[in-house]
Amino acid sequence: MPFCSSRIDDMQTLTSQKSQITRQSSNASGSAGSGSWSGSPRRKGIAGPRQVNDPPILGKREESNVLRARGLVALILLLAATGVATATNLLVKQQERRDFENQFNAYASEVVTVTRSKASQFFDALDSFASSIGAQAAVEHASHNTSWPFYRIPEWSVQAKKLAQLTGVDDPIVAMAPIVQENERDQWISFAAEQNPVWYQESIEHEGYTELTLVELLERTIPFVHFYDPDNNFQPTPVSRSGEVFPVFQQYPIGLVQGVPVMATNIDVLLASRQSEELYHITKITRRPTIGFIQSDPDIEKTIPGSQIIQPIFEGADTEAEDRKVVAYAGIALHWLDYFKNLLTEGEDGLVVVLESACPKLIQQGGPFPIRQNVTVSERNIITYLVDGPNAILLGEDDLHDPTYDALVVSEPFIDLDIDQSQLPEGSCVPVLTLHVYPSKELEDSFKTSNDIIYTVVVIVIFAFTSLVFLLYDFSVGRRQRTVMDRIAKQDRIVSDVFPTAIRDRLYENQAKNMMHTNGVEEDGGPLGLDETFYGTSNTNGSAPLADLFPSVTVVFADLVGFTAWSSAREPHQVFILLETIYGAFDKLAYRHGVFKVETVGDCYVAAAGLPEPTDDHPVVACRFARDCLKRLKDVTLKLEVSLGPDTSDLELRTGIHR
Questions:
Q1: How far is it, in rounded angstroms, from Cα 174 to Cα 234?
Q2: Is the dihedral of CA 554, 560, 564, 569 positive or negative?
Q3: In 24-108, where do the E strands start and end?
Q4: pLDDT of 57
Q5: CA distances (Å), 111 to each of 108, 114, 345, 354, 404, in order?
Q6: What is the CB-side half-sphere exposure of residue 500 using CA atoms within 13 A?
Q7: What contacts 547, CB < 8 A, 6 or more positions away?
Q8: HSE of 34 in the Cβ direction (CA atoms, 13 Å)?
């Protein structure tokens, strides 16, 4: 790595040379009859002067570089603004989407958990209700020598109300229907006529019922086992078939439910609806509770989006006996719309709940008994609800969720009675109900904000402001550079007038090289004994070369590790004390090893071995110097730790050697 030091020729000699060239130029011009340099004698190494108005070549090159850099920075700013704005917009939207999906999963989990808990609680309560009735009847029959179906449940409305409350829905209908054999029908009609006023009056007193009096209730009661014939304008018609019947006896609530008469006393549940017939047949076979789903009745043009649940009541108090006899049925009718109310709190809106049955839908076509022969089935049995906080809305009798949210569905089994379908006759089915919970666009829209636009605009404004600052700075720097270039141009014209072109260019080059040595020059030559001749500031013999070449040197760079953090917590005078002490120690080491100190920049120390006196072992000298500097730094920082702080000794030296 060569090092050079320049030496400028004496100004008077150069001026004399320029005058001589000028005179020679004038003579040649007079003989040639023109102002050209052709034919004029030139000194070796000196070229003709260039035109005064020519701009400096360096200035043109730098101006072109500045223009390219300016365009590159503008392009980078534009691309960065576009990229960051787009990324910000996408990130904000993705965050909103994640928030929406997380909140939906929380809502869906809450809906599934609550509905399954309510269903489990309800079936447990229904089983206990049926067992209690069987036990009460056993006691009654033992004490009064009676038997089923001639049994009235005491305090019926009290027990039925407790069961209704456990369903978790509003206004369910609870009923009890005993099994009446054909030879018991007349006796049953007399028993019911005798006991109806008793349990009617109990229910009126317990429920606080005021819409109808006892007499009006009895007038509305059909005194025989019947069904409502759709072929006879739904008039009550006596059941004429042979075999057993299932007349409704006691029911809750009594009278009107939401303004609709529900006096179901003596209705044969087998002929009440296709679903009722199906459920009672299944319960009779399996001796277990079963559940219906929905039914369509074209005769009344009405779809009942609800369910009937049938629980067998066994004779006697022994609930474990496998051969126990089914003597009656407890039934509950409820609307799924009421079931999905009060699942969420106010403000938790926009959940679509799809309730699906594994059994096909039964469609009653009407006609006299047997109804089983007048039924068709549809392929899917689904109803859809919209849950808005504590409210629920029936959307329709199909899967009506938005397919956009198929990937977010939360599906869980809702009710599974674990009945072996192989036990059932062909065409019968006990449904396994499944909940599918989907979000709605309403729920997703509630998480959409204008933050993506706001943040994008903020990013664009920041980049616009940055660009404006850049333009202002660029304008300021450009104006300053133009001033500097004007000054350089003036100086260039002056130098061009004084020196020939070749000498001027070499002076420019040497001046740039000399600037890196200027900071290392001491007034008296320094400890290395460097004189002014080396730095080109004197001309002792009038013909000194412009530069001295050092073809082989080794440069040492050293800087302090941790200095920035350390100095940020110190006062200026403490920083000065540290650097002065360390660099003073390094200077002594440089003098001892014969190393030339080039400069110090902040916490960086630069030195070179192999100049001004060339040596063959300058790499070894440089390595020894660097090693001693590392050791010396530890000693100095330990001594300064008392005055400059305990972390001063944590400073370390990083060195680099270049040959």
A1: 23
A2: negative
A3: none
A4: 59
A5: 5, 5, 11, 12, 21
A6: 21
A7: 4, 5, 6, 7, 510, 513, 536
A8: 6
Half-sphere exposure of 59 (CA within 13 A, CB side): 16
Can you name the residues that pair with 295 across neighbouring β-strands? 304, 362
For 361, the token pair is: 């839908």
Task: Say if residue 253 is preceded by a cis peptide, omega within 30 of 0.
Answer: yes
Cβ neighbours, 10 Å, residue 357: 23
Which residues contact residue 328 at a Cβ distance below 8 angstroms, ignoring those fewer than 6 apart?
Answer: 133, 148, 149, 176, 177, 178, 179, 312, 313
Element of type H or E holding 633? helix 618-644
CA atoms within 13 A on the CB side of 356: 16
H or E element, residue 88: helix 57-144
* Amino acid present at 235: Q
Give the three-state DSSP class for 609.
Answer: strand
pLDDT score for 547? 55
As a whole number of angstroms, the distance between CA 351 and CA 330 comes to 33
Assign 604 to helix, strand or coil.
strand
Furthest C-alpha separation in the chain = 162
**Residues lower than pLDDT 50 in the chain:** 1-55, 257-259, 296-301, 365-375, 519-544
If 0-12 CB within 10 Å is exposed, 13-18 middle and 19+ buried, where does residue 530 land? Answer: buried
Amino acid 605: pLDDT: 92
pLDDT, residue 405, reads 92
Backbone angles phi, psi at 112, to 5 degrees: -65, -45
pTM score above 0.70:
no
Length of the chain: 659
- Contact by Cβ (8 Å): 554, 609: yes
Cβ-based neighbours of 485, under 8 Å, separated by 6 or more: 55, 56, 59, 63
Q: What is the DSSP string of 227-291?
A: EEEGGGTTEEEE---SS-B-B--EEES-SEETTEE---TTBBGGGT-HHHHHHHHHHHHH-S-EE
DSSP assignment string, 329-359: EEEEEEEHHHHTTTSS-TT---EEEEEEESS
How far is residue 73 from each of residues 64, 66, 471, 474, 547, measured CA to CA in Å? 14, 10, 10, 11, 39
The pair of three-digit structure tokens given for residue 307, joined into one six-digit string? 């369910």
What integer pLDDT is reported at residue 262 of this predicted model?
56
Please identify which residue in the block is written with the tokens 């309800």.
Answer: 122
Q: Using alpha carbons only, what angle is made at residue 100 by residues 95 and 104, rounded to the nearest 5 degrees?
A: 150
Cis peptide, bond prior to residue 149, ω within 30 of zero: yes
Phi then psi dihedrals of residue 101, to 5 deg: -65, -40
445 half-sphere exposure, CB direction, 13 A CA radius: 5
Instruction: Look up residue 587 and give its DSSP letter.
Output: H
122, 319 Cβ separation under 8 angstroms: no
Helices (H) and strands (E) in the chain, counts: 14, 24
Q: Which one-letter DSSP state was computed for residue 180?
A: B
What is the 3-class SS of 396-442, one letter each residue?
ECCCCCCHHHHHHCEEEEEECCCCCHHHCCCCCCCCCEEEEEEECHH
Per DSSP, the three-state class of 199 is helix
